[in-house]
Each structure stands twice: as C-alpha cells, then as structure tokens.
Design goal:
The protein is an all-alpha fold. The protein has helices spanning about 5-40, 45-50, 55, 60-90.
C-alpha cells in the first residue's frame, strides 16, 4: 500500500535534517579560512581585532587561531556525521 501520512512526514523531516546538517558541515569547513581572511585581510582590522576583549584579542596568536580552526573543523565533522546518520535513517 504505501506509507502513512505520518511516515511520509517523518521521512521528510529526517531528510530535511540531513540537508541542514550537511549545509552546516560545509559552512564549518569553510569557516577557518573565513576567520583567517577576516583577521589578516587588512592591517587596520587586525589591530582593531587584537585590541578588543578576550576572545578577539587572542585571534592574533597562531596557537589560538589553530585551536579555533580545529574546533570549527571538528564541528564540521560532527555535522557531517549527523547528516550521514539522518540520511541513512531516511532510506
């Protein structure tokens, strides 16, 4: 016969969540490059950022930028894994 209305709605929701997490993963993977460009794109902006309060004042240091980049990439991997889980559930 086919799926019930509730089953189709659930499948549609799961597919939507899969797409959402896939999009978030792509954004998270691109974010370290965007953060680097934002901080180092202009010398005046760089000075403005590192003179700011705590999290921004540390963006001038390499280890802190590396930690932020790795955290964003880890969030991307987590989002990608969630996307795959939801995609598998939608089958």
């Amino acid at each position: 016969m086919g799926q019930s209305v509730k089953g189709r709605a659930m499948k549609s929701l799961v597919q939507g969540l899969s797409s959402l997490f896939l999009g978030m993963a792509l954004i998270f993977f691109i974010s370290p490059l965007l953060v680097y460009w934002f901080v180092h794109g202009d010398p005046e902006r760089y000075l403005w950022i590192i003179r700011g309060p705590y999290p921004f004042s540390h963006l001038g240091s390499g280890p802190f930028q590396l930690a932020v980049g790795l955290l964003l990439i880890a969030a991307g991997v987590g989002s990608l894994l969630l996307s795959r889980v939801f995609a598998r559930m939608a089958r």
